[in-house]
């Protein structure tokens, strides 16, 4: 079987002309999406836990953070971090770093809300049972609440990760050489714009779809681990059922 | 360098009149388009004919999975080649509207699904024509259910509208960028733009939450 490297320059016509550049951009897009996602998930867990804290001040801090970053748009936050903050602090961030930071802070705020909601959705009886079994607060969270909340978090997190992937295109505005940037560069240098834009959209779509597939897998695993959803079927039983 | 108040006061009126006007136009235009288009899409996706519902569903999935920015590029750079010449703002409104129609159609779908089955059965029992059932029984209830979520999307559209500045629309952020690059000072205009979004988006989402509670009961 012959496999075709979609990034090679030997592809016929416009594809060979454009795909190597688009792939470079796509790699940068993936890197910034991965960086942003890592930061966003950490922030979401920490701030989400803070938002469900019994202490009022801790909750307040989390609330302010969430409202602040959900109240302004990513693009403004990005501009502010990249253009305005250096004037205030005298520290010029690397543009990829500024981009990842803005994405992580913004999507992290949305993620915190997801985490908070998921923690709240765990039935109170679970918590009461853990208390009755003399679990410490930490054990309660670690062994009882979080695993169940985790299952609830996955579908909205999937949406947020796709939003994050889409938002990486904004980094092109501060001249990070991501997919959107490389695409525009190609168009400006005279490649067929219809084809370049179509390729860009398809690449973004493939990435989004990949995120959805991975998250569905994670969701099934997580659901199984807390005893929800279908247990993993052994091959043999599946064969028996098929024979019936 | 520190904050320059005199200059802030100098650029503030321009940002808050000219820029605000464009941002509001883009938001409202995009929202209205998204609401109308989303409803049609939701109805088309419920069609029993698979050759209608499937492709519409696939297109919407595609729109939802790709960045608004690239879609705006397509509208702005490619459409003129086919003879559609529009101003940047109109292009932006169409982009926002179509992109968010993919989201609002899901909201309507959930709203329609949430109408109890008994309503449909009652309409059939009363021998109501199907279009009448939709228009005066199902949709009013579905839209009512959908309102809070739609309100959230107005806020979302408002927050996404700065992306139009990339296709040369001079909204609050576009203006702030312009002012910033002219004077090499981004601190004040960008901070104003950020505060402006905060000051509108936070009360707006509080309003939506209130609406949610009221419609819940």
UniProtKB/TrEMBL annotation, chain B:
UniProt cross-references to PROSITE patterns, sorted A to Z: ABC_TM1
One matching Pfam family: BPD_transp_1
Mode of membrane association: Multi-pass membrane protein
GO cellular component, one term: ATP-binding cassette (ABC) transporter complex
Main location: membrane
Subcellular location: Cell membrane
Molecular function (Gene Ontology), one example: transmembrane transporter activity
InterPro entries: AA_ABC_transptr_permease_3TM, ArtM/GltK/GlnP/TcyL/YhdX-like, Ectoine_EhuD, MetI-like, MetI-like_sf
Domain of life according to the entry: Bacteria
Coiled-coil spans in chain: none
Keyword Transmembrane helix: yes
Keywords: Amino-acid transport, Cell membrane, Membrane, Transmembrane, Transmembrane helix, Transport
Membrane-spanning residues: 20-44, 190-208
GO terms under biological process: amino acid transport
Occurrences of domain ABC transmembrane type-1 (ranges): 20-208
Protein family (similarity comment): Belongs to the binding-protein-dependent transport system permease family.
Protein name: Ectoine/hydroxyectoine ABC transporter permease subunit EhuD
UniProt source species: Nonomuraea longispora
